[in-house]
Specification:
This protein is an alpha+beta fold and 128 residues long. It has one domain. 46% of the residues lie in helices and 12% in strands. The protein is globular, with a radius of gyration of 16 Å. Strand 3 and strand 4 form a beta hairpin. Helix 2 packs across helix 4 and helix 4 packs antiparallel against helix 6. The protein contains six helices and four strands; from the N terminus they run H-H-H-H-H-E-E-E-E-H. The model has no long low-confidence stretch (mean pLDDT 88). The strands form two sheets. A two-stranded antiparallel sheet has the order 1-2. A two-stranded antiparallel ribbon has the order 3-4.
Length: 128
């Protein structure tokens, strides 16, 4: 069985009303965001089955996937950079966790979006 995104391109454009990701790129971006959500939730969605989650959990996950896909699409160059920081003429820039970006398991995500994902109860580090 092939891995599927938790959000279809039709859901992204019609229900979420997303317009950041260009047509033709949405499916790939949504799939990648779904994989990142699985990493941050310790694959609990995969193990339980998306359809076995509560309606609340499903709605939160769909919204987070859309937001994460847009974030990754808009910031692809910075996220994929191999540099952790640089300095030119006394001005420096750092990549990674910052006041508004959460980074864990190689996934960068806005902190407010991660907080939303945590509402599902699937991000707890304790074994279930």
């Amino acid at each position: 069985m092939a891995y599927k995104s938790y959000v279809s391109e039709a859901y992204y454009t019609d229900y979420y009303e997303g317009s950041v990701i260009h047509e033709g790129s949405a499916e790939k971006a949504l799939l990648q965001a779904s994989r990142h959500i699985d990493s941050l939730t310790y694959n609990r969605i995969v193990s339980q089955g998306f359809s076995n989650l509560t309606e609340f959990q499903q709605e939160i996950i769909k919204e987070v996937v859309c937001k994460q896909a847009e974030f990754e699409y808009e910031n692809a160059d910075m996220i994929e950079s191999v540099l952790s920081g640089y300095s030119i003429n006394g001005v420096s820039a750092q990549f990674g966790a910052s006041w508004n970006v959460f980074a864990d398991k190689g996934v960068a995500m806005r902190k407010d979006v991660y907080s939303m994902l945590c509402q599902t109860g699937l991000c707890c580090r304790l074994a279930r």
